[in-house]
Amino acid sequence: MTSMMAPSHKHGHDEPHVLPVSVYVAVWAALVVLTGITVYVAHFDFGSWNTIIAVLVATTKASLVSLYFMHLRYDNKFNLLILLGSLMLVAIFFYPTLTDLTTRGLIEPIRDLILPNR
Amino acid sequence: MSTHVMAQHHPAEYQPPHHFPSARAEAEASKVGMWLFLATEVLLFAGLFCAYAAYKTLYPEIFKGAHKLLDLKWGAVNTMVLIFSSLTMALAVRAAQLGQRLNTVKFLAITWLCGAAFMGVKYIEYSHKIHVGLVPGQYYDMLGFTREFLEKFPQTPMSEVERLARGAHLFYGVYFLMTGLHGLHVLIGMGAIGWVLVRAMRGAFSPKFYFPVELVGLYWHLVDLIWIYLFPLLYLVG
Amino acid sequence: MTQLDPSSPANPEGHTPPKGGVSFYQAARGWKSWVFTLDHKRIGIMYLASVLVAFLLGGIFALLVRLELLTPGKTIMSAETYNRMFTLHGAVMVFLVIIPSIPASLGNFILPLQLGAKDVAFPRLNLLSYYLYVIGAVFAIYSMITGAVDTGWTFYTPYSALTPNSVISMTLAVFILGFSSIFTGINFIVTIHALRAPGLTFYRLPLFVWALYATALMQVLATPVLGITLLLLIAERVLKVGIFDPAMGGDPVLFQHFFWFYSHPAVYIMIVPGFGVISELIATFCKKPIFGYRAVALSSIGIAIISFLVWGHHMFTSGQSVVASMIFSFLTFLVAIPTAIKAFNWVATMYKGSIWLATPMLYALAFLWVFTIGGLTGLFLSTTATDVHLHDTYFVVAHFHYVMMGGTIFAFFGGLHYWWPKITGRMYNETLGKWSWVVTFIGFNMTFFVQFIMGAKGMPRRYYNYLPEFGPYHSFSTVGSWILGLGFFLTAYCLLSAIWKGKKAGDNPWGGTTLEWHTSSPPPLENFLTEPRVSGGPYDRT
Which of A115, B11, C336, C473 could be bridged to C454 by S-S, CB 3.0 to 4.6 A? Predict the structure, then answer.
């Protein structure tokens, strides 16, 4: 925590961190292959796993883009924290909202059993 | 492996604004600012993804049925276009880091053209959808849906098609809102790329001062990231 | 004094800095020096002026609403006008006043000073943020002229998707104001990370800075969801998408989830900067370091995190599932922990302190009183069983006015009095300041305390008419609102007259220890003539 919060006016290291072209091309090739995979598996029906598989492949692709194309692997770790923090909030947003949608009317039968006069 | 590259010749030493101790500090701070902005973009789209998840949970059959009328071929082409543009954008940033003006301009121009190609494909898709009435809400055409669906899947029983046709407007509502907002971001990204492209042509950047290219790059990659999720969720699983 | 490095030429004695710099007012003149300024101090002052004008406007709406409720039935306006009045009061006060009040006005002015920085990280973005605020305000005024909105500031669907009033322009106004808020938040976070003076580590930051940091996190992470919610509402009105329309298979409760995912953190966006101001006031006027500094600092971050987990407590009676309500109710009780940490630590700081009852400190004491009432009544509302009874009654109105008005506005006023000498270089009249505090405090409690009682007895909020048994409470509350209005008028006179008639304040009239008191009043163009260096805690005294 403390190291992430260090003031960023460090001197020295004035030269940019340059990745070789081969890394970028390799990442791009991996993205193309993963796109192929996700399109290919969509031809099969895994039931509710369809969405999970699609999201997992997409997340792998997204990780590659953010770690290499967006330099998060080599960058100030606070930037990674911002991205992960925003994703955590997305989860916090989704989970209770979907819990509400899927649990409506779940407790009421039990309540009516205990308090039949309501 | 990565390499540290010494600054080559560049026109004039870049002077950061006086409230920053160094050019490096300015670039780092701007990058943190950009990442915070990207976090807001993630949460902006999260609202739409949440709406998608909510209605997919409530109406799984309808989403599964209605998504079959999206054009998988065009969606896949657009995915490839955007992924390729992400590569060229990353290479443009790299060229800017190295002070290679010509390469920076070249790769930025390719990225911009990819963006234009993406919007071209979206135009083809949208105009077809609008033509046959697969649009959100009150402009949705149930007959158009039925016709399209039977044309593509003639074996489907009529009762099934009718059931889908009655609810499919929600899917197209979500589809147009998500891809529409994403398309707007592509356009904004193209505008930003155009801006750094002009500056790069004028030789504004050097290995000490290239962070505007990097910031535009981050934005463009985010546009790609969102499409990476939109494509499978809308076109593949529905 | 903040432990300035003895080797620093800025401050060998620990007080008066070297003189000779011209103040930022004198550094440039003419209207252009304000309209195109990139100086955080001028932008802060422009925000302050705009927020106070909006406060006057929102206050007039509030007085009209209270006047209408003086007697049952029609008093001065029709029911339709009344609906618009309370909506405008709510929307103006929330989006144009309370959210930008402390961070964008006082924060803009004070934050770089407390960090020992020359400006915020992105001065252009700062100015853009101000103009977005102005554009948002223009849209809001346009909406008022073209029929106003009668949905309540919450814009609940399906009504907001159906009412013929000008919902879209008001929605756009709030959307634009949201971006203004986001940009301020981004600016503050980066400024705090990148532009702290040498030696100013995170645990040496004044608590106001910690509070602004926590606020900025919430602004950045919550506001975009409001943005998309309002875009969806516009899509709902223009395209009839049906996402929130039950007739088309949509779910109106989903709108409430979206809205409160932003608006609950927004409640803390409103109050947490107030916490920061109170910490500064108590440290200065008790002449002691804040007891449990780290706990108070981290509790701001704690509140920011918990704020994202509790939004469903606004929806206990909306048709939300009971399971979700139970989870939200449980999580809501957690908010009491970091809030209590703050309240207890403030009181512990005052214990055996040498308390100076100047006007800012009086506002801090008033804050502790009203905020404790506001906070504790929140626990009634977070309990699902009592909330079913109290939901949408005046109890809720009283609760959030004790927190928003009694909490945030009192902290804002305390901060205004505290930093007024720094901003203007002039000291207000202390006697007048104290009297206006007395009137404001009495008026506030008269207006809102009775609302707890009538709410508990079942008076619903937002109603135009009421049963005769509620008459005495409503009349009492309305009379209270006049006293409150008088208090605000006196406060405004007290502060504004100081600009022309006030005595020169000196650089550090309160004996404050944080960095803003180590430069001249008003500060020079780039805040400090020599870069400050810090080697101790924010409230250490030598």
Answer: C473
